């Protein structure tokens, strides 16, 4: 499927698939959405000294970059192991044109952005001291066959249910739950009632949170 680059309302860019009429990120603001959903309502709520993150899916790499940006603000006395799944990696020209490092004041992020995208798939790579990235090229439904440490934070960032409804149904959420630690947190931009009910069936405590710009609500879910 062909992709084109579009600029969202906060000045950050996203990829758009015309065949699906679907953006990789919110047109209201790609950066604002990533920081609100996955940092404000995700990463900063986790206090473990070793944080294992699972992301579905890698896409443009923006969620990895905002996570590293937040990590670099801390005293870095903890370790982050970041596992991310992606079936269709984007092209080098798209990576260059998205240029997400330009959105941040930290000059380190240009090299980090390049390292994120240049790092080999199927290997754990230390992107910066204490932050390890493991990119896995696969279908999300292959998750059940992937050996991971117990995950304590999930970035559930699949394409919307309008274009990929199977990614928002019980079988995939069950696979994700099986990979998670007790008290692990799943955060997603979705606030669908069907998603809330599925997570509750899987023994998650579900909380509706204020959504990112352009969206009234989102979901946080803690596994019990």
Structural write-up:
- The chain is of the alpha/beta class and 224 residues long.
- Helix content is 26%, strand content 30%.
- The protein is built from six helices and eleven strands.
- It has helices at residues 30-40, 62-72, 92-98, 108-118, 170-179, 193-201, and strands spanning 3-7, 13-17, 22-23, 50-56, 79-86, 124-128, 131-137, 151-156, 180-188, 204-210, 217-223.
- Strands 6-7-5-4-8-9-11-10 form an eight-stranded mixed β-sheet, sandwiched between helices.
- A hairpin with a 4-residue loop joins strand 2 and strand 3.
- The longest helix has 11 residues, at 30-40.
- The termini are far apart.
Secondary structure: helix percent: 25-40%
- The end-to-end distance, rounded to whole angstroms, is 39 Å
> Which secondary-structure class do the elements indicate?
alpha/beta
In DSSP terms (H or I, runs of 4 or more residues), the helix count works out at 6
Question: Oligomeric state of the chains?
Answer: single chain
Instruction: Return the average pLDDT rounded to an integer.
Output: 97
Order of helices and strands: EEEHEHEHHEEEHEHEE
Task: Give a short account of the largest sheet.
Answer: 8 strands, mixed
Number of strands: 11
User: What's the shape?
Assistant: globular
Low-confidence stretches: none
**Proportion of residues in β-strands:** 25-35%
Query: If strands are numbered along the chain, what order do they take across the biggest sheet?
Result: 6-7-5-4-8-9-11-10
Cα-atom radius of gyration = 16 Å
């Amino acid at each position: 499927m062909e992709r084109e680059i579009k600029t969202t309302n906060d000045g950050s860019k996203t990829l758009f698939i015309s065949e699906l009429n679907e953006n990789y990120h919110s047109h209201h603001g790609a950066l604002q959405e990533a920081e609100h959903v996955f940092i404000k309502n995700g990463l900063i709520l986790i206090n473990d000294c070793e944080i294992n993150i699972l992301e579905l899916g890698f896409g443009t790499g923006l969620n990895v970059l905002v996570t590293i940006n937040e990590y670099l603000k801390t005293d870095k006395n903890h370790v982050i192991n970041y596992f991310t799944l992606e079936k269709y990696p984007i092209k080098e020209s798209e990576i260059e044109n998205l240029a997400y490092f330009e959105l941040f004041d930290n000059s380190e992020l240009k090299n980090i952005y390049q390292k994120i995208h240049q790092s080999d798939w199927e290997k754990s790579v230390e992107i910066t001291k204490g932050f390890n990235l493991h990119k896995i090229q696969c279908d999300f439904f292959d998750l059940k066959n992937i050996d991971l440490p117990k995950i304590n934070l999930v970035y559930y960032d699949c394409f919307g249910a309008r274009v990929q409804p199977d990614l928002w149904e019980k079988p995939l959420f069950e696979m994700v739950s099986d990979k998670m630690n007790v008290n692990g947190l799943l955060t997603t931009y979705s606030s669908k009632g069907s998603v809330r009910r599925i997570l509750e069936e899987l023994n998650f405590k579900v909380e509706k949170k204020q959504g990112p710009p352009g969206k009234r609500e989102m979901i946080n879910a803690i596994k019990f």
